[in-house]
Design a protein that fits this description.
With 153 residues, this protein is mainly α. Helix 1 crosses helix 3, helix 3 packs across helix 6 and helix 5 crosses helix 7. The longest helix has 26 residues.
Length: 153
């Protein structure tokens, strides 16, 4: 019989593991590294058991995933390992967008990802990444313009 905490964790894994994977993959660009980060994130959830509403847990998981991904990349850089494998094959057209996104600064890339792929509003993204709603709206707009320029090239 599962405890209420174990049920909470199981529901979070079922509901958000794809999101956590996509955020980790955005950083690592390597499937196995992203899967390792997913495991670390949900292990941290199990240990921490943050008591928050459903929308808050998704934001918490994304923030932890970003932090774990950054930690992973710093450790990888210290070890001097080569870059990860290229992203998995995508439908034509998506490869160009993925490559253009990777040229954006990290905060811009994160803001666009959370807005377009995860459906967060500027207010919610500001809460996750830090900053004001107005600043995040401007960041999303400027990042979108930069992305258009990269895609035109």
């Amino acid at each position: 019989m599962l405890t209420s905490n174990e049920k909470f964790i199981a529901e979070a894994v079922n509901k958000y593991s794809d999101t956590v994977f996509r955020v980790a993959f955005q950083y690592t660009k390597d499937r196995s590294d992203a899967e390792d980060i997913v495991q670390e994130v949900f292990l941290k959830l199990y240990k921490a058991s943050p008591q928050t509403d459903d929308g808050g847990i998704k934001a918490w998981l994304i923030r932890v995933t970003i932090n774990k991904s950054k930690d992973f990349l710093r450790a990888k850089k210290r070890r001097g390992k080569a870059e990860g494998l290229p992203p998995p094959e995508r439908e034509s057209g998506h490869i160009e967008v993925f490559e253009a996104l990777s040229q954006l600064p990290e905060r811009d890339r994160n803001a666009l990802y959370l807005h377009y792929y995860e459906g967060y509003t500027a207010r919610e993204i500001a809460r996750i990444l830090g900053g004001s709603e107005r600043a995040m709206s401007k960041r999303i707009g400027r990042a979108r313009e930069k992305l258009k320029e990269f895609l035109k090239e």
